[in-house]
Structures are given as C-alpha cells and as structure tokens.
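Notebook p. 47: complex prediction with adenosine-5'-triphosphate.
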Amino acid sequence: MPECLLELRGIYKSFGGVKALQDINLKVYPGEVLCLAGENGCGKSTMIKIISGFYTPDSGSIILNGTEYDHMELREAIKGGIQVVYQDFSIFPNLTVYENIAVNTMVVQRRKIVKKKEMKEIAKGALARIGADIPLGETVGNLSVANKQLVAIARAILNDSKIIIFDEPTSALTNKETKELFRVIRGLRESGIACIFVSHKLDEMLDICDRVSVISNGKNVIDGDMKDFDKKKLVYYMTGKEYNDRSLASDVEKTEPVLELDNLGLTGFFRNISFCVYPGEVLGITGLLGSGRTELAKAIYGLMPADSGQIKIKGKPVEIRSATQGLMHHIAYVPEDRLTEALFMEQSITRNIVIESMGDVSARGIFDTQKAHKSALDWVKQLRIKTDEPANKVSTLSGGNQQKVVLSKCLMTKPEILILNCPTVGVDIGSKMDISILIQDIAKQGVAVILISDDSNEILTNCRRFLMIKNGEIQNEYNSEEFTESSLYSELIR
Ligand SMILES: Nc1ncnc2c1ncn2[C@@H]1O[C@H](COP(=O)(O)OP(=O)(O)OP(=O)(O)O)[C@@H](O)[C@H]1O
Ligand SMILES: [Mg+2]
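Predicted complex, structure tokens below:
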C-alpha cells in the first residue's frame, strides 16, 4: 500500500446530546475511490465536514500529508489538497462557466487585475482535463445540474487537489449523466487523485468504488476492498438486516378507479396522458429527469394545472387548479425536491409533520402542543426518523431523515390519492425497504398510490403495473413480472 494521504484517528463529534461520531478511524490512499457507506444519519457528512475544516472534532486527530492536526482550518484543508463537490455545487449562477472555474485561482493568487483571456485559458484547460465540453461563456445558472457539477469538479482540480469528496453527487443526475460523472471520477483516479464517494445506491457503490468503509451510528463497522463485497454483504453491514429484492406488489381488483386521467395535457410538458388508478393499487410511472414526470404529478395535485383533458375522481369530473383544491380532493403529493418544496427547514420536526393536519392536533381551534408532539413521536417511531427530540429543527436532520419527515406529513393527511415523486432519493437502503413496506400498507388501506421513480428496483418492488413516460408521452403500460432490474433500466434509457 502506498503512504496514506489522509487519516482520521479516534474522531469524536457531538451536537448537543447527539453523538454523531464516536471513535471514527479512516484512511485515504492516493488514486483510490473510497466509498463511505451507511444509513441515513450514521455520520458520513459530518466526517466530510471535519475533513474539510467545516466542523471541529471534539477529540481525535487528522493526519494530512504527514502532518497531525487536532482540527482542520478551511484554508489549511484546501491548501492540503482537499476539495468538496457540494450538493449545491457552491457555484455563482450569474457568472459564466469560465469565471466560475477560474475564480478561486485568481483569489488564491491575490490578483487585483484579472484578464479575461487568461481566465478562459485556465478554465479551458481544466474542462479538457476532465474531458467535459461546456461552452465557456455560458451563464452557469442556465446549465443542467450535471454540467453545473462538472464546472464544480473542473474548479476543484485546479487547486492542486489530492482528495476530492463527493457527497451524494448522483441524487439529481439522470442515469446517463451518472455514467458521465463516473467516467470523470475514473479519470481523476488515473491521475492519482483520491476520491471519497457517498451514495445510497448500491449499484453505484459497487461500480465506482475500490474500497469501502462502512459506518453505523457514528462508529466504524468494517473496511475492505469493494471486490470482496456484494449487495447482500453491504446491506448486512450497513443495516444488520438481510437484503430483500423480492417484489412486494400484489394484484388489485379493478373495480371503480379512484383516479382517472383522460387525455390530460399541459403545453410544453406532456400530452395525451390517459390512465386509471384503482383503490389499493400502487401504479408506477417511470421516466427520466426531464421526461415530464414531475409536471404530470404537479398537474394532478393542482400545482401546475393541465390545460387540456380531464381528471376524474371516483368517476366524477373535477377541476384541480391549485394545491388547496388538490388537498380538498384528498390528494397528497410528496415532491422530488424536499429542500425547496416540502420543508420549513428552520421549524421543528413536529411542526413540519403536523402542518397540513392542523385539525387533528387542535381542540376547539386551539393548537394542542401535547397532541402534536405525540403524533410526531408516532411518525418518528414508525418511519424510524433518526432524532431524539421532535422539537429540534428539521435542518438538524440528515438528508434521508428529512425525506421521511415529508412522507410523514403527507401520510398524516390520510390521503385517498397519494403521489410519490421519487420518494427515496437520498434515503438509505434499510429505510427504503421500510418505506416500500409502508407504501404497500397504505395501498392495502384502499389508497390509490402513484409512484414516480427512475429507480428500477423501486418500481419493480412496489408496482405490479407501471407506465413509462418519455418526452411528455406515455410510451406503454407494462407488467413488472416481465422485467428484471437491468432489463427495465435498459428500456428506460433506450
Ligand atoms: N448541525 C447539526 N446539529 C445537530 N445535529 C446534527 C448536525 N449535523 C448533523 N447532526 C446529526 O448528526 C448525525 C449524523 O448526521 P450526518 O449528516 O453526518 O449523517 P449522514 O450519514 O450524512 O446521513 P445521510 O445519508 O442522511 O446524508 C445525525 O444524527 C444528525 O441528525
Ligand atoms: Mg449526508
């Protein structure tokens, strides 16, 4: 083994009463892709923030390029070659591609006069190094998520970086874009850069990573070469449970449909969409980012009303032109982007859960704190939301646990029609299995569920019948028994 670039030794970190990390050890070697694996809230992002100098550990040490530190300063971490590609990419949306890429270099050199031509050359070189073809003069705000990420990577490699950290980089990428990102990561590895990679998708972990370090509840579980792991073994170490890829879906009786779409259309997004959902059914809709899947979901819920066609609920034509009307028709919607669409980050977990069900937690029009607290605790238990205090702000939860808060909020409204738009993005595998069981339970109570997802495993686990949407049109209806995970994936990106 070559000398290690970075080592964490006996790191502890608490937030109030929450012991996020307890005696964590980690080694990172040059030219490897290291997977940090573990359930939501196990401490992966906290480790990353300690490595990059964002948090100070309570105790333990960090050895970077042979020097021992009790904590990293942000600037020291950057100087030592550590770069993080954050989920929001920390880019300047109103600046151009070349300005975004070259800006750090200019700042580091404390340059007062900045030459456009020079910046363009720097940016061009960086993009060429990762094999990305993005117009230099384009405003970054106009780029796709994938290209924004490439801009962030191009900027990262300019700082003589030795370790590039990716915290869930694929959550907002299509399958094709993920492949492209992996090509770039392999290139970084070739050039001796170490990458730390975090994802909840098992296929990705097995595909791109050389080594894995599994964390559970802030403690090391096992380290090893990825080639010695498979899905079953990974899941076992992460969750202590057996991996289950059996389908949970059951056939439903096609009685009167709860929801019926008749030639629904929204100019520019989707057209001629017709289908029914029956009580107790989990109907899948699979399609890639940009296929019209999200606009269709929003049209049913009333957030983006359709401009042609008809929606019927239990046989009766209805007008749904706002989310309030959607709610009145007992439709609940779990949006794709929880951060911007579903949560009040600075409010408590309790308040976020009960906000759409105030009637259930009020007595004679007065908010009953005790009742709200009790409801929230029930949901925390049922969905295994990792917190010891529902009065804490949602912003203190890990990403996957925030998603569970959104689910709780929607389920608490006791919907008759539940639309789930990619409900398990960023959710760990153990909770994903829990959520699948929960979806089936909800359906069994007679709710009509629409599950939108580009995760083949999720569709096949939950749905007997599913539709595929491409370019705003339904391609076909399928029976999931005729597919395997990989055949569905191929069909989707065809
Ligand atoms: N700023 C904070 N204040 C309070 N608690 C925090 C804070 N940051 C993290 N935590 C807690 O520390 C624990 C570890 O969180 P962390 O974000 O590191 O998890 P993670 O492994 O990245 O999870 P995910 O896969 O969901 O992103 C969690 O219990 C989380 O609630
Ligand atoms: Mg995280």
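Notes: The chain is about 35% helix and 25% strand. The mean pLDDT is 91.
Next step: compare against the earlier run before touching the bench.
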